[in-house]
Amino acid sequence: MLSLFLFLLLVAVVLGIIGVAASGLTILLVIGVIVFVADLAFAGARLRRSGRYGR
């Protein structure tokens, strides 16, 4: 699950960078932020459900 978290985090960062760098593609920045927030929510829910040291 950690690999999924890191992959989604990487996707969010790449989309954000492309959205900022490319003119007219601010929708990619918005999508990157949404993916980032969803990724944090997913990780938080998983941590809360399994406990700090549980699997």
Count of DSSP H/I helices = 2
Measured distance between first and last alpha carbons: 10 Å
What helical percentage do the residues reach? over 70%
N-to-C series of helices and strands: HH
What would the average pLDDT be, to the nearest integer?
Answer: 80
- SS-based class: mainly alpha
What are the low-pLDDT stretches, counting only 5+ consecutive residues below 50? none
Shape: elongated
The biggest beta sheet, please?
none
As a percent range, the share of strand residues is under 5%
Radius of gyration: 14 Å
- Strand runs, count: 0
Task: Give an overview of the whole structure.
With 55 residues, the chain is mainly α. The protein has helices at residues 2-21, 26-50. The longest helix is centred in the last third of the chain and has 25 residues, at 26-50. It is elongated. The N and C termini lie close together (10 Å). The mean pLDDT is 80.
Question: What's the gist of this structure?
Answer:
This protein has two helices and no strands. By secondary structure, the chain is mostly helical.
